[in-house]
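SEVERITY: medium
COMPONENT: batch folding queue
REPORTER: lab tech (J.R.)

DESCRIPTION
The queue accepted two submissions in a row. Attaching both inputs and their returned structure tokens so the on-call engineer can compare them side by side.

ATTACHMENT 1
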Amino acid sequence: MNVCELRVGLTATKDQRLPHSYGIEIHDSLFKLIRSKHLTFFDDIATQYQNSFSVSRVRVEEPNEKDPYSLARGEEAYFKIYSGDCKLIETFEGNMDSGDALNFFGLEFNISTLDYQEISLENRSLLPNPIPLAFVTPTVLLDGKETCSFPNVRPFINSLIANWNHWFPQDLYDEHETEELIANTKIVQAQGTVQGAPFWNDTFVHGWRGSVKYAIEDYDERHSLLFRLGSFSGVGLGTTAGFGRYRFYWKIKH
């Protein structure tokens, strides 16, 4: 099982400072660029592929220790696009070029590099159980029809499995497996805050940022793979705009 990654390198066209590392403006700028290049592909990613890829937060390539979010003209930043569908990522790459403009948060960048790779989720050691996650951008989950700003077990597992089933349809989780995993999972530690962030159409969402440990009874490799996928797919709302990103917060051997 592979996750395909496109690393989009950015060059600042003027001195500027990132106000956020995530947000709908990243999504909108990327979609605007794709729409200008290939209208049919734009329609596809806006509809049938919307849940089949995610976009990371924006990172400064070599951050200044005193002001890690500042960028002088000519300095580099990047973000990444992920999917379980390698042809989809290759199509993204084919519709982006060095020199293309991407503007978000009132900042101006040109694309400098496009680097594609495939990342295997298999043949790695099991993640530790409990699994320690650090939610690094606001995470908003759906609990039924209501939004949930804390990664409670059911909405969190439901989101993970929905992403798994979109990214790896050849190896679906069924309803029984989903309910069994929810019943066997509990939160053993959580620390963090709820943070407001701008979302679509000038609305705000309130999402969780902090650390959570999930303990799983009858833990096995399939569960480890599921949580590894989540570090690429994100969870909850806005995963094509850098929301819902988590990482493992102690070093994991690959």
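ATTACHMENT 2
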Amino acid sequence: MNPPSRRSRWCLSIFAVGLLYLNCAVIWQHLAKRWQAPALPISSKVAGVFFLFGVFANYETNNHELVLWGYTETTSGRTNGWKPLPTEEYFPFKPGVRQQLLWSRKFIRVQEPERLWRAWARSGKQILARHNRTHPETPISQVALENRTWPRSPAGVYILQKPGTLETNFWIVATNR
């Protein structure tokens, strides 16, 4: 086996330096906005590649989970009130990707919080309509999102998901009322 040529070593070196620059530029871009400092030049399309869940997952100190809830007014037994909906039925992605897609303003193409709420409301209305169409035996009148956050543990994802460490936020995003 021949050693790599000088040209291929140069190409790989340039590629490595470019990748290092892009990582630094993306990280600095966020900090520069916070500190009102000039950012390194990088296009938003190139920076978007680096905002994938897998890139920053190892730096996250908490686990996050999205739970969809539907409010049913059916009075048959225990089904009255809020019930969890199968999140993977409406967002068929792995949990980390699902979480990123719902929180990332880049992926739903909004920058202002008001537009993010409108996007969630639109998604909630679609979930409401689809659930009532596919599950006519248990119709719902409201859809809510619950975000659960708890500390990470090397022992497993759900080990520390318990009262005292679990933080939840609950938002009603769509209603038929």
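NOTES FROM REPORTER
The mean pLDDT is 78.
No errors were logged for either attachment.
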